[in-house]
Design brief:
CATH class of the largest domain: Mainly Alpha
Radius of gyration: 41 Å
CATH architecture of the largest domain: Orthogonal Bundle
Number of helices: 4
Bound molecules: zinc ion
CATH topology of the largest domain: Helix Hairpins
Structural class: mainly alpha
């Protein structure tokens, strides 16, 4: 066996090199899609936080409204009591008395509503604080994850940028005719060059003729008659 690198070995090396680069491109795609998913998770987390905050605001509004009603009822009661002090007529006095009794009932009911509103507000605040802490941790984690992946993308992109330059060097010594055929084949299939194992093409399992095996042993370019991929023997 010769120790010099044959054109065919150079050709196989070029193909391996291309396949490694395809892997890198695939990794880049995966990383990009990971980052998009992480960004979506970040948006979701921020949205969840806003929703929790909205619940606090709604609970606060309910408290404010009930407190306002309280103040209004107090003010009305005060007015009625003043009127009661000045009234001369017995009938009018009785009517005012009745109104005041009714107001007191309303105040009592409103107090109960206020207690409930306060409880709701406290619960909403506690939930929000808990969620805020958990989500802030989550946001920090996601952001760190995004940064790591962006750094990986940068490194891989640099590798891809060097690819064209390195590839030119790998093409040297490979017959131009093979390069043309290979270039056409690459646009059609992921694995344009396949191994022959036990006399069969490893892509389509077509039986390779003895004549083709001899040609391969001779380091000639042979295409599978089943799938038209280039064949090699190890
Ligand atoms: Zn085949």
């Amino acid at each position: 066996m010769s120790t010099t690198v044959t054109p065919f070995q150079k050709f196989v090396a070029l193909i391996s090199f291309d396949q490694e680069n395809n892997q890198i491109r695939k990794q880049l795609q995966d990383l990009t899609s990971d980052i998009n998913n992480l960004k979506q998770a970040l948006t979701n987390a921020e949205h969840e936080l806003l929703v929790a905050h909205d619940l606090v605001k709604i609970a606060q509004k309910a408290v404010d409204a009930t407190e306002l009603t309280n103040q209004e009822l107090d003010a009305t009661e005060k007015t009625k009591k003043n009127q009661l002090d000045q009234v001369q007529d017995k009938k009018e006095y009785a009517a005012l008395k009745k109104e005041i009794t009714y107001l007191k009932e309303q105040q009592h009911n409103n107090e109960l509503i206020l207690v409930q509103a306060w409880t709701k507000l406290e619960t909403a605040k506690q939930t929000f604080e808990k969620q805020k802490e958990a989500l802030n941790h989550k946001i920090v984690d996601i952001q760190a994850n995004i940064n790591t992946k962006q750094a990986q993308i940068l490194a891989l992109t640099q590798q891809i940028n060097n690819y064209e330059l390195e590839r030119k060097a790998k093409e040297i010594g490979v017959p131009a005719e093979w390069l043309v055929k290979y270039s056409t084949m690459r646009t059609r299939v992921q694995n344009p060059v396949v191994q022959v194992v036990n006399g069969s093409c490893m892509a389509c399992f077509y039986d390779i003729t003895q004549q083709d095996i001899n040609a391969l042993n001779d380091n000639r370019l042979v295409e599978c008659r089943g799938c038209f991929r280039f064949l090699y023997l190890t």
